[in-house]
Amino acid sequence: MDCLFCEIVKGNIPSKKLYEDEQCVAFYDINPMAPVHFLVVPKAHIACADEITQENSPVVAHIFCVIAKLAKEQGLCDGYRIVNNCKENAGQTVRHLHFHVLGGGPLSLQMA
Questions:
Q1: Which residues, other chains included, contact 19 with Cβ-Cβ below 8 Å and sequence gap of 6+?
Q2: pLDDT by residue (tens digit) across 58-73?
Q3: DSSP string spanning 54-84?
Q4: What mean pLDDT value characterizes the chain?
Q5: C or N: which end of the chain has fewer Cβ atoms within 10 Å?
Q6: Sign of the torsion formed by the C-alpha atoms of 71, 24, 39 and 95
């Protein structure tokens, strides 16, 4: 079996999708840490931020454009946080590049 997020991208594991295009998928976190908590992942498997290259970096730029669009649609006009963990010691539990977007109320200043 591929990684969890690859399986979600393929549609083999259900998710509550928020957005999808040819480059990425956004879906709600199954264990939300804020009133609004969704993830945005590239469809192409990139294990973590260490694997971003000149060739695949356009998808990361695209993801940030998608995040801005979705944040507006989700009513996160008072602010939101974008979190990316790179490797296990930083808390990355799924080895597929992903960005958590959290908002919908005051967030702790403590880093997750």
A1: 25, 26, 40, 66, 69, 70
A2: 999 999 999 999 999 9
A3: TTTHHHHHHHHHHHHHHHHHTT-TT-EEEE-
A4: 94
A5: N
A6: negative
Active site residues: 98
**What is the predicted pLDDT for the residue at 1?**
54
- Residue 110 pLDDT class (50, 70, 90 cuts): low
For 16, the token pair is 């509550």
* Residue 108 pLDDT: 83
The pTM of the full predicted model, rounded to 2 decimals, is 0.93
Q: What is the identity of the amino acid at 98?
A: H
And the tokens for 58? 């356009």
Q: How far is CA 36 from CA 6, 11, 72, 82, in A?
A: 23, 23, 12, 12
Residues with Cβ within 8 Å of 27's Cβ and at least 6 positions away in sequence, in order, are 8, 15, 16, 17, 18, 38, 39
